[in-house]
């Protein structure tokens, strides 16, 4: 009886709060209603981090009792790949060199990449290999066709780099269908995989992000097995998801995979990143190669807790800690969340 009275009072208080508390904006840390007797969920999203600095396409890796995040090149500088660090998965800071300058995790580019500012180094992802070294996958503009990107690989003995390209040739390219971007590695108990997006909208017929004018071009997400060295592709690639056409503005991208309780969960973004429909979505399957079933609702979309155009999510190896970006000021700021999985439903 006493617990029922307490729950009633709590619900009344929360109802009053709902009428008086302003909607949370992306300039503040966000923490919504705490679970009370199983009726309410706590939302774990928070941000922007690093003071709202531009930190697009973040990836996450836990290492040595801390967390590292890697991001797309810094606009207006010579830094190709950014690095940030957190000891508590809450407070993040840019990793710097001993002289105080911002560290570049990929200072030297291979010969297949367009040099200088035209390199457009995007969407890095870092995995630790069995021998204790690290591999980074990244996208960059290619000299073979400067309008398109390919996926490259680089290795390092230290997690923050410097990473050294492993070849004078890209790892995945597929120029005839638009190129390749947004590579992501995944280690499933010793079985390694690489995912990427075929960048079909780069050869689209116009509109938002180049692909809302019919006929809409495929932008499939593919997966392929990797050898333990993290750079040798094995077997053939399998398409596991594609865009839904005009209803998704002809785009899906930014794949990140996890395997929780026998369910494969593919996180991805849909729609054009420059518009308000960009989101963090997910699909589930009982097999890594699909078929994948989309969730009934995106995990994050514009308007959720004040977010604007959230996307580009990456999940840690264990399927719990997530980083993503969203519009903030004139750039894309870093946000974070912790997710939970119940069957095939993901909540944050």
TrEMBL record:
The record marks 182 as: Important for catalytic activity, responsible for pKa modulation of the active site Glu and correct orientation of both the proton donor and substrate. The active site is at 57 (proton acceptor), 253 (proton donor). The keyword Hydrolase applies. GO terms for molecular function: hydrolase activity, hydrolyzing O-glycosyl compounds. Residues 1-20 form the signal peptide. This is Arabinan endo-1,5-alpha-L-arabinosidase A. GO terms for biological process: carbohydrate metabolic process. Belongs to the glycosyl hydrolase 43 family. Keywords: Glycosidase, Hydrolase, Signal. It holds the Pfam family Glyco_hydro_43.
């Amino acid at each position: 009886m006493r617990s029922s009275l307490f729950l009633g009072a709590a619900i009344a208080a929360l109802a009053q709060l709902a009428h008086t508390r302003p909607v949370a904006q992306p300039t503040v840390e966000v923490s919504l209603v705490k679970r009370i007797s199983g009726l309410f969920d706590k939302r774990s999203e928070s941000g922007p981090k690093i003071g709202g600095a531009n930190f697009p396409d973040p990836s996450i890796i836990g290492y040595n009792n801390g967390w590292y995040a890697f991001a797309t090149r810094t606009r207006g500088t010579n830094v190709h790949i950014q690095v940030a660090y957190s000891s508590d998965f809450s407070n993040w800071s840019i990793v710097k060199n001993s002289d105080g300058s911002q560290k570049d995790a990929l200072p030297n580019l291979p010969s297949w990449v367009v040099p200088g500012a035209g390199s457009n180094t995007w969407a890095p992802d870092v995995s630790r290999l069995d021998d204790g070294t690290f591999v980074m996958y990244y996208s960059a503009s290619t000299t073979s066709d400067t309008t398109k990107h390919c996926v490259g690989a680089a290795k390092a003995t230290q997690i923050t780099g410097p990473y050294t390209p492993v070849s004078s040739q890209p790892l995945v390219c597929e120029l005839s269908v638009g190129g390749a971007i947004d590579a992501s590695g995944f280690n499933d108990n010793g079985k390694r995989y690489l995912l990427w997006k075929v960048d079909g909208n780069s050869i689209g017929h116009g509109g938002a992000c180049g692909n809302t004018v019919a006929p809409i071009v495929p932008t499939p997400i593919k997966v392929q097995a990797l050898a333990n060295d993290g750079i040798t592709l094995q077997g053939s690639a399998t398409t596991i998801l594609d865009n839904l056409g005009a209803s998704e503005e002809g785009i899906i991208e930014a794949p990140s995979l996890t395997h929780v309780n026998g369910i494969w969960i593919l996180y991805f973004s849909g729609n054009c990143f420059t518009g308000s429909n960009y989101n963090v979505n997910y699909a589930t399957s009982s097999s890594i190669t699909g078929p994948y079933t989309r969730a009934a609702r995106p995990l994050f979309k514009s308007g959720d807790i004040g977010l604007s155009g959230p996307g580009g999510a990456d999940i840690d190896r264990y399927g719990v800690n997530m980083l993503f970006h969203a519009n903030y000021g004139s750039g894309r700021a870093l946000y974070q969340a912790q997710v939970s999985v119940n069957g095939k439903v993901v909540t944050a």
